[in-house]
Amino acid sequence: MKLKNILKNRAGIVTEEITSQQFVDMVNDEFDIETLELMKQVIEKQITMLSTMQGISNRKTIKGFGSWN
Asked: What is the distance of C-alpha 40 from the center of its chain?
């Protein structure tokens, strides 16, 4: 699986595609705690955004709880 422009290409951090194995290797080879924390924050923010979008798109209207006009 290709991870397209991982770590926010929009911010100019990575400009090439890497495989998931390359990403795992990059994390395993990193020993700077600040860099790992930054990566963690970016990933958690993206997961939160995608989960929120998924929850909004799958929301079902419950009949019987509408307005009584």
From this structure: 10
